[in-house]
Amino acid sequence: MKSRDYIIQDLKLDVLSPVEKVGDLYLKRDDLFAPFTFSNANGTKLRQCIYLLLKNYDKIDKGIITCCSVHSPQSVLVSSIGKYLDLPVTIFYGGTREDRFDVLPMPRIARNLGANLEIVTKMGRISVLNKKAKDRIINTQEFFVQHGIDLTNNLDVFFESVSYQVQNLPDELDNLVITCGSGITSTGVLYGLKLYNKKVKNITLVGVAPNRVQKVKNNLKLIENAFNIELGEVNFNYIDLFNTKGFEYKKREKGEYCGIQFHPNYEAKTYNWLKDNIDYKNEKTCLWIVGKEILDK
Q: Is the confidence at residue 1, as pLDDT, over 90?
């Protein structure tokens, strides 16, 4: 296998993605982190997953397993890394049919990248899929990338993969807006804002998944305890789109700003909220773009 240092250099993992002033908005363009020639996998979550695997590099030689929704890009992120590292990847799904793998883009792309797709339960509930994966790895010794690329047991990865990227944000902002799905990226950004002493009047997490407020707060407390640091009061606003009437995670929305197409399941929804609720033309506002839609290469 490639050495850890080689991978960091080859994929430019420690290079800061740019912050661009586009029209009236600042944009943290983490969607421009797209290191593979064979895949359009990109973004903050991809870097998180790579660093997670590097942290556990001595445990991944038997392969990688993960589980997610058929609409989630996590399958493609993990499959892309597996292809790069020449490791087998298995994706567990539930509540679907095999014929949908040819229709839905995320499973189709993951399979084209070499992943093995398995339907292991009639339900799509993540807790059930997690249990199936944990039962399997007892025998196979595969490395399990948990839903949302969870970093609870790998707290130092928050800094390497997310918090480090905060340092080139403007030192002072009126508003910083972040899409909140699993809460992992949000935790890393909030941690980074404290580390780099960024002055942000209003931090807003726009929730496109079940409410993650307590998870974010718990993660920050775990970081404080693990590294014996004092982050102080971390204040943020949470906009719970997920529990608003008519909202669906899988429902796509159009969102475009100055020619930049936002991910229809994530940043498009966040941007559509932002433009209706924040006076970004008169207030210094930055939108963190976690990633763009992954299309066939």
A: no
